[in-house]
Amino acid sequence: MKRVVVILIVGFIIGFGLSGCGDSGEPGGGIGMTKARTIIQPGWQCPNHQNIKSAYPGNCPIDKMQMRRIGEWTCVDHPNISSTQPGSCPIGGKDLVKVADLEKQTGKSIADLTKEYQAAEKGKK
Ligand SMILES: [Zn+2]
Ligand SMILES: [Zn+2]
Known about the structure:
Layout: H1 2-19, E1 40-41, E2 44-45, E3 53-54, E4 68-69, E5 73-74, E6 82-83, E7 97-98, H2 99-106, H3 110-124
Antiparallel strand pairs: 1-6, 2-3, 2-4, 5-7
The protein binds zinc ion (ZN) (2 copies).
């Protein structure tokens, strides 16, 4: 079950990478829903390379810069979920919370929370 979820996330991230971030707005207006969708994106980005993004914290493969968090909303259960606006988690459906609030609540940085989550996911495989 968990593995399916991970595959879905990876697929989502790959989809985003291929579609590019310069493309704003809906393609062709084929979606009839008016409700704003939660925009989930890879949560980490190199400050020097806008196109270098990752679901987990780490260093840029080009200049080794530490990637910084982008998107100020996340899920309490899934800190790898990153969104630029409030919404609900695509995995668990929980309302997203502000990264700053989550850090305050847990007393940990979002980088640590994401690494812990990543380690826990790895441990399950
Ligand atoms: Zn870089
Ligand atoms: Zn979640």
